[in-house]
Amino acid sequence: MTVSSSENQPKPTVRVTEYVYDTKPKYSNAVVLVHGDHQTGDVWVRKADNTPGWVTRFCDAGFRTFVIDLLYHIPDNPQQPPGREYYGIATNKMSKNTLQTYMTAPRSKSHKVFWPSMGSHCMWPGTGKAGDPIFERVFASMVPEYLDPQERQFNGQVTLAGILRTLEHPAILVGHGSGATISWLAADLVPHRVAGIIAIEPTGPPFTDGWVNDGEKRIYAPTFPDPLSLPLPSIRPYGLSEIPMGFVPPPLPPRDTNQLIQDSAHVGAAGTKGFQPIPFVPSIDPATKAPCYLQDELNGPVRTLPNLQNIPQCVVTGGSSFHSQFDYATVAFLRQAGVPVSHLKLIEDFGLYGNGHLLMLEDNSTEIADRLINWAIQNICNPNTNPQSPDLAPPATMTPQRGRTTQALSADSCCSTWSTIQRQELCAIRPSKFGKSSFNAR
Q1: Which of 114, 131, 311, 360 has its CA 20 to 30 A from that of 191?
Q2: Are strands 171-176 and 31-34 parallel, antiparallel or unpaired?
Q3: Where is region (Disordered) located (predicted)?
Q4: pLDDT value at position 12?
């Protein structure tokens, strides 16, 4: 289904902003920063305390840097999908309680969520609680989600792929949360336009949720629930995503659309095995020896992702984030699919402590950005044509507006290389009814 608008409404747009602090960038590979759910491109422009953010560091290091505001995520131009009730999802904005519980003040004892490292979270500026000026500014910058995950992923994939096609050289994608998922999806579509991927705490884990309930608390730990016990047993049925990717051999097709819809709506007897386009089983991650769900190697071929196999990439995890309890499972899934990926843990690999899920907004985010820039230069940028890792200067005091060029693109222009038929085929297999949306920590 093509995203469109009525004649009386402006077409939905995507905003792309380029930042250049050096008229002659040092590297041919541009950096494209992709935000996640409930966010806008502002998360890359300024930190929580309103000082210059990651875009400044990447520009100072010599990269052309692009910031994207995805479809329906432009803060000063709020648009709603026409007839959004068709999508089966209510307008969903993250609550203040959810934001402070999971991301800005997890050390608080006033909530019913737990993971082992939450008490060490200390890098959020201010109290991290409602009423604090920094918290209120960050909360005010967040936007609702109007579409279900399948629609958001599809729109993000074709949008980002369309933008990448316009760049002169392959780009480095830096995605946060669902923005990392979109980065993988776009790279799967146009691998020749992607030089590398830095996935900041990507949506996960594969096939299931990252938490279980013990009756009183929602607990994040390396003990994941049986997917068949979940209200939506088809969560991330393609491992990284809710929509198909270029697996070889291809994923199993559903018998018909109703099979996938019924599975997603959990119609049928409890415990009935739902449709699995990629059969998976309880497994042990070879690297961490921790439990996870991986492809079933005994009863079928392991499906690989050949379009991602030649792209240098890493997954980045904060030590005090709930993602510290399951990002390893995403890494294990990628490696099983033949994708060489590094897992960069801020504590173990860089000695950076106290970071939560919104690590690019926290007090030590400049140090994190610098470590990732050096990783990108050493592992992604062409050493034959690009200079060695520069000595990064102290954080810039200039405003991140200098050298900014903004362009608003229609959703149709980003997707122009995709036929209406292809879009209809892809969207036809997504569930069309999910009911009222609730936050699922990504």
Answers
A1: 360
A2: parallel
A3: 386-405
A4: 58
Phi, psi (rounded to 5 degrees) for 323: -65, -20
Domain segments of the chain as ranges? 13-428
Tokens describing residue 299: 């009863």
Residues in the chain: 442
Distance CA 366, CA 41 (A): 17
* φ/ψ (deg, to 5) at 375: -60, -45
Query: Where does the pLDDT of residue 149 fall: very low under 50, low under 70, confident under 90, or very high at 90 and above?
Result: confident
| Whole-number percent of the chain with pLDDT over 70 | 72
Which amino acid makes up residue 295? Q
Instruction: Please check the confidence at residue 25 and state whether its pLDDT lies above 60.
Output: yes
Q: Which residues contact 316 (CB under 8 A, 6 or more apart)?
A: 198, 199, 200, 201, 344, 346, 359, 368, 372
Token pair 């004649």: residue: 7
Task: Please name the residue ranges forming H helices in 192-316.
Answer: 257-265
CATH class label, 13-428:
alpha beta
Rounded to 5 degrees, φ, ψ at 247 are: -70, 150
Q: Per-residue pLDDT averaged across 18-47, rounded?
A: 88
Count of H-run helices and E-run strands, the chain? 12, 13
pLDDT at 405 over 80: no
Measured between alpha carbons, how far is 283 from 378 in angstroms, rounded to an integer?
A: 33
Residue range 355-365: mean pLDDT, rounded: 98
Which residue from 61, 51, 53 is spatially nearest to 22, judged by alpha carbons?
Answer: 61
> CA dist 201 to 277, 332, 381, 415, Å?
25, 14, 22, 27
337 token code pair = 């699919």
Q: What is the identity of the amino acid at 259?
A: Q
